[in-house]
């Protein structure tokens, strides 16, 4: 932040900036300690198909700070990215998610569920990314064909070729890829066609509105329809995130969306609080 400011203005550290820097550095130190001391926990949010049957989960990390309580990834992922601790954090997330897959491998229903894991740009760009994921699958014994890695459009800026090579290597052992938050970033449609993707996730800003209304329809129905059509044209499975109402679910279903995720179905929850698989 200081560097960014420095490009346009002459640099002088006022008290405010100094305080902000101290806080950020302090957060970086705290987060590092928290990772080492096992304060991270994975929550899981279910994903359902058109029949509202669960087909998988997305792993979403939380930080339980001894004093501050639960901290959202929105408030610490960027700090981890800045400090480089995202590599340590990402490795822990991948390992923990794979262990959960293994724990489900003998469950009559959950053994079919996929596990989606968010991957950050620094992880994907690291030279050992493919080796690390492969090693993680080997160490845990998790089935590669249940693992879906979620990447975002902004990761594709620059270095696209080497990212495609890594994606192909992982896909050759069965790992799948989803493009997360689609429509909000840098949309280069020619990239989209070249990327070895399996799923396209419509960003939740097109799905749900900010109003707290149980009957609310889609926030941007023309855009969700366009994204679904685009996904289908490219042969991808289309996933909608942020589905908060029945009306949104029904509208997306009639637009051809395949998989749905959101508060209408379930909140992200602790592993042991996931819905019991009973009814079909
Ligand atoms: P994301 O991957 O797009 O995950 C979806 C976010 O939307 C989650 O927020 C989820 O709780 C929230 N959400 C789900 N359904 C609804 C809904 O119906 N309405 C609304 N308003 N929100 C909904 P969360 O858990 O706070 O995570 C935020 C972001 O943090 C994630 O966005 C992802 O980019 C990042 N993140 C989370 N876990 C990890 C991780 O392990 N590694 C990395 N690199 N990033 C992570
Ligand atoms: Mg995601
Ligand atoms: Mg998303
Ligand atoms: Mg999102």
UniProtKB/TrEMBL annotation:
The EAL domain extends over 24-280
Q: Which residues form a coiled coil?
A: none
Q: Which domain of life is it from?
A: Bacteria
The region annotated as signal peptide is none
What protein does this entry describe? GGDEF domain-containing protein
Q: Whose protein is this, by species?
A: Aliidiomarina iranensis
Full-protein interval shown: 643 to 922 of 922
């Amino acid at each position: 932040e200081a560097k960014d400011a420095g490009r346009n203005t002459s640099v002088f550290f006022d008290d405010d900036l100094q305080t902000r820097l101290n806080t950020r550095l302090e957060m970086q130190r705290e987060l590092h300690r928290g990772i080492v001391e096992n304060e991270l926990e994975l929550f899981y949010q279910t994903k359902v198909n058109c029949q509202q049957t669960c087909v998988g989960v997305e792993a979403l990390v939380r930080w339980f700070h001894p004093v501050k309580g639960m901290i959202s990834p929105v408030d610490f992922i960027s700090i981890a990215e800045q400090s480089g601790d995202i590599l340590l954090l990402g490795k822990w997330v991948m390992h923990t998610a794979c262990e959960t897959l293994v724990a489900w491998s003998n469950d009559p229903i959950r053994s079919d569920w996929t596990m989606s894991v968010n991957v950050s740009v620094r992880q994907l760009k690291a030279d050992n990314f493919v080796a690390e994921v492969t090693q993680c699958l080997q160490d845990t014994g998790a089935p590669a064909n249940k693992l879906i890695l979620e990447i975002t459009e902004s990761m594709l800026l620059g270095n696209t070729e080497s990212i495609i090579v890594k994606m192909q290597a992982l896909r050759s052992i069965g790992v799948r890829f989803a493009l997360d938050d689609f429509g909000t970033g840098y949309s280069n449609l020619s990239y989209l066609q070249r990327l070895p993707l399996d799923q396209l996730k419509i960003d939740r800003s097109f799905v749900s509105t900010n109003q707290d209304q149980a009957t609310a329809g889609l926030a941007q129905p023309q855009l969700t329809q366009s994204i679904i059509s685009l996904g289908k044209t490219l042969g991808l499975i289309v996933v909608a995130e942020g589905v908060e109402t029945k009306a949104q679910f029904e509208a997306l279903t009639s637009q051809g969306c395949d998989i749905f995720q959101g508060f209408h179905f379930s909140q992200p929850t602790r592993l042991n609080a996931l819905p019991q698989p009973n009814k079909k």
